[in-house]
Structure formats: C-alpha cells, structure tokens
C-alpha cells in the first residue's frame, strides 16, 4: 500500500520492541530462546530483556548501548539535517514529487564515516588519488576515500525511505533504559533490574558510533543490578561499528556458544576460536593492502594482557604465513626462539628475523610483515 504520509507519529525503541512482541502474540509464540541484535538491534535486545523479561531466555547485544550518548546523537543529527536541508524534502511530503536524493546521499556518506574506523581508511585508501582525478587545482572528487564515500551515498538512493531514516534515527537518540529509583532520580541500574537472563555483550575497539565504553556500561550495569551471568567481550577489528556485518567469523563463535550454552561456553569458544583463527584471518586479509605488523597481531590476541599463549601465537603465524612457510618451519622457529609458554611482546617480535630468513631460503616470494 501507500507509504505513510507525514507527519508520522513519533515512536521509541520500546515501541518497536512492543510491536515485535505483539507479533509474537499473534503468532502464539509465548517465549523466545534469545534476543540477539547489533546496533539498533542490540538496543532492542537490551530493551526486550529488561521490559519483557519473562518472555526472553537469553540476550546478546553487539555494538549497542543502554542509553544514547551525545556523540552518537550528534552524528545522527548531522545526517538528519543533510536530508531535511534538501529542498526536495519538502517537510517530508516528497512521495508525489522528486526524492530528496542529494540529502540522502550526504546522510549516507556521513553515516559511513561513523560505521568504519580511521585505521581501516588508512590501510585501505591512504592518501591515494583515483585514476580519474583531474588534479589538485580541481575541487571534484580526487582521492580514493572520497570516491568510496560517493559510491556509498549513491547506493542508498531509491533503497531507503528518508522519512523512515529520520524517525528511526530519532528513536535511537532518545533511547534509554533508565528508570526512576527510590530517590526519584533516573538510574540505569534501576532500569536493568529486570534483565537477569544470561547476557552476552560484545564491543569493538574501533567503533566510532557506539564506543566500547557503552558496551562495558551495559555489562557493568547488569552486574550492578544483580545479574551474575554476564559475559563481556571486546573485539579488536579495523571494521569498527560494521564489524558485526563484516567480521562475523570473530563474532559468530561467541554468539553461537552463548545461544547453545551458558556464558561460560561462549568464553571457551571466543578464546579458542575468535581470538586465534578469526584475528589471524583478519590480519591476513588486511595485510594484502598494507601489511599488518607482528605487533598488531600480538595486540589483537592479547586483550590487554602483557602475555599471550605461545600456541595461540603459533596458530596465528601459521595462518598469516600460509603459502610462504611450512608449518614445520614455523614450529622450529617457535621452539628455538620462544621456549616459554607465556610470551611477551618483545619476545614475539624477536622471531621476525627468523621468519624472514626462512622465507628467503624457500621458493616463496619474499614478504616482510
């Protein structure tokens, strides 16, 4: 049917979740095994666990928050202004006329900047000029990063309704799980007292839109509210906020473990799978443009610790150097250079010369990570 004409009714994240449970009622589904979501979906997951606790068995919140903060709100405000400043927006009455395409393109470009990380931009684009650039005296698109943002903006046109974007964006801005406590003050701990289910919270270190302190806030507040079954994991991914879309090989095992078991099961899978093979895979992909250093690989696995298990490091090196060194060569280097099971950063960096030397001796093309 015809799309909703403005003015549209204001709705909140809670209203979205309530509508979902109304649908479940219609489908005669009484209880969910789990609520799982990322970004807005992660906000909805926390909301469902807190407000519909009897109907939610477990929940997972990825790259989300329990209360919006001004940084994210500012980004979304700029996106809304880009759309609303387009003359074709016409107060939202554009359905029988031209779409506010220019505003929508700019809004998507602004959003894309927040969805990824500066580290990825640096590795992927640097300061490279694209092949059709006209020169430094011209104000047209000159750099690869500019052309990428233009491409992302163009993809959104005719694929996303501007009014929908505006109202969903507003709902995200006003989201909070706070409730009034006994002192009459808004309190996040009070608001999460209903969310006592097993919880998995995942954050991404390079997330610009939902910084990791917001995911830590969810986990810490759940624990303060009395939830003793909270697992928190932090992913070091260059993909920033979009890691839940682009780095599923890292996030997937932890979510799978949480859905199948208690949070302790997720911890096992995360440590054994996500923090080894997944991080190694990310490193191997990233270095195809600008090589990741051994220091980056170590930090990706350390999780802030000053030591990393030698076997996990060996698995990483095997994957990253696959096709250039044999597993036997790598095992020999580790046995000679890293006799201790717990390896410090300096010790790990010491194997670089041995890896390079072994690579020179073989038939493979030399590559200096």
Question: What does it look like?
Answer:
Helix 3 (70-84) packs antiparallel against helix 7 and helix 4 (101-115) crosses helix 6 (144-156). This protein is flat. It has 369 residues and is α/β, with parallel strands linked by helices. Strands 1-2-5-6 form a 4-stranded parallel sheet, sandwiched between helices. Strands 3-4 form a two-stranded antiparallel ribbon. It folds into 3 domains: 7-67 and 175-267, Rossmann fold; 71-171, Rna Polymerase Sigma Factor, Chain: A (Orthogonal Bundle), CATH 1.10.1740; 288-364, Recoverin, domain 1. Helices cover 52% and strands 8% of the residues. The longest helix has 24 residues, at 263-286. The protein contains 17 helices and 8 strands.
Shape: flat
Strand order of the largest sheet: 1-2-5-6
Kindly report the CATH topology of the largest domain: Rossmann fold
The residue fraction in helices comes out at 40-55%
From N to C, what is the helix and strand string?
Answer: HEHEHHHHHEEHEHEHHHHEHHEHH
Strand composition percent: 5-15%
Average pLDDT reading: 84
**Major beta sheet summary:** 4 strands, parallel
Q: What is the radius of gyration?
A: 24 Å
The end-to-end distance, rounded to whole angstroms, is: 56 Å
Please identify the structural class as seen in this structure: alpha/beta
Number of strands: 8
Number of structural units classed as domains: 3
CATH superfamily of the largest domain: Alpha/Beta hydrolase fold, catalytic domain
Query: What is the highest CATH level, the class of the largest domain?
Result: Alpha Beta
With helices defined by DSSP (H or I, 4 residues minimum), what is the helix count? 17
CATH architecture of the largest domain: 3-Layer(aba) Sandwich
Poorly predicted ranges: 272-278, 284-292, 362-369
């Amino acid at each position: 049917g015809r799309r909703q004409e403005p003015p549209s009714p204001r709705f909140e994240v809670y209203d979205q979740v309530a509508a979902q449970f109304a649908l479940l009622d219609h489908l005669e589904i009484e209880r969910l095994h789990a609520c799982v979501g990322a970004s807005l979906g992660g906000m909805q997951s926390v909301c469902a666990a807190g407000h519909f606790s009897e109907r939610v068995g477990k929940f997972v919140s990825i790259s989300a928050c329990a209360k919006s903060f001004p940084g994210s709100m500012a980004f979304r405000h700029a996106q809304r202004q880009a759309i609303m400043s387009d003359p074709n927006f016409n107060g939202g009455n554009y359905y029988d006329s031209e779409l506010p395409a220019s505003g929508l393109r700019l809004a998507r470009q602004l959003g894309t900047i927040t969805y990824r990380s500066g580290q990825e931009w640096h590795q992927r684009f640097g300061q490279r000029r694209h092949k059709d650039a006209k020169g430094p005296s011209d104000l047209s698109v000159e750099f690869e990063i500019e052309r990428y943002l233009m491409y992302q903006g163009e993809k959104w046109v005719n694929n996303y309704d501007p009014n929908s974007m505006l109202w969903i964006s507003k709902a995200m801005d006003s989201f909070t799980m706070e409730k009034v406590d006994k002192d009459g003050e808004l309190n996040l701990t009070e608001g999460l007292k209903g969310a006592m289910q097993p919880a998995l919270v995942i954050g991404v270190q390079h997330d610009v839109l939902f910084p990791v302190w917001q995911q830590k806030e969810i986990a810490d507040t759940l624990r303060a509210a009395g939830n003793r079954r909270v697992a928190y994991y932090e992913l070091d991914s260059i993909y920033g906020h979009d890691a839940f879309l682009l780095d599923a090989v890292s996030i997937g095992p932890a979510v799978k473990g949480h859905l199948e078991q208690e949070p302790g099961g997720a911890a096992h899978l995360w440590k054994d799978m996500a923090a080894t093979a997944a991080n190694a895979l990310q490193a191997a992909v990233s270095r195809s443009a600008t090589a990741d250093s051994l220091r980056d690989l170590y930090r990706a696995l350390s999780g802030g610790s000053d030591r990393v298990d030698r076997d996990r490091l060996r698995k990483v090196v095997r994957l990253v150097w696959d096709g250039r060194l044999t597993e036997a060569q790598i095992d020999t280097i580790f046995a000679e250079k890293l006799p201790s099971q717990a390896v410090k950063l300096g010790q790990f960096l010491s194997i670089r010369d041995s890896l390079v030397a072994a690579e020179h001796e073989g038939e493979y093309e030399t590559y200096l990570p």
